[in-house]
């Protein structure tokens, strides 16, 4: 499952769907689409075999802060979709490089403490909400909606809200997924150098993520500039100046975009 809260992320959703199909998963992709988006968005999604679930936008109680995070609270709707027994949620700016079906065997709220294995981020203890394993529960969802705007969140994001709503997550080590399931693209080269992680060779996207414990299964393009923003300068410079694995990930995403458009 994913979220499309703004039309700008449509390209990301289409590439995500393409990658999931290439992985051979039997689970269909459902996308939560904000009710204020035009109907042709639904047409674009369904023409690629994506199921659409319209949801009302959840406003950010912190107001406008960073434009690319203003709409992320709508992600919380996924916790109330009780027509699903279990959901693997992925942000639309993720590149799936392996079969992720094994995540359906993980417990509710399994996620990655992304970036914390780098020395400069060793104090990070909380989950990254880009990939979540969720068992929807209506009572829990209702409590979320009633609590929005009341918790002492540290910043503007729905992720910070989830940190407050689930304060014991850092100590629940049974919920901590390996970092290969949500690797920030800007960290790929450091994780490779320090911990031996490597990116997929793109020869068999149906292989299980657990087949190689050092293979990055999901690359997360964090930040305001995405691979589909070809005309916007990257914060780390033009593509040719990016570190090798980061550059490779961007090229792979764009290759998947070309494949998805055929």
The CATH level-2 architecture is identified as: Alpha-Beta Complex
For the record, the CATH class is: Alpha Beta
Sheet with most strands: 3 strands, parallel
Give helix and strand order, one letter per element, not per position.
EHEHEEEEHHEHEH
Q: How helical, in percent, are the residues?
A: 10-25%
Q: Find the CATH topology.
A: Spore Coat Polysaccharide Biosynthesis Protein SpsA, Chain A
**Which range does the strand content fall in?**
5-15%
Low-confidence stretches: none
Question: Strand pairing plus helix content: what structural class?
Answer: alpha/beta
* CA(first)-CA(last) distance: 23 Å
Silhouette: globular
Q: C-alpha Rg, in Å?
A: 17 Å
In short:
The chain is of the alpha/beta class and 262 residues long. The chain has helices at 10-22, 39-46, 138-147, 158-165, 188-195, 244-260, and strands at 2-4, 30-34, 51-55, 87-90, 94-96, 131-134, 183-184, 218-220.
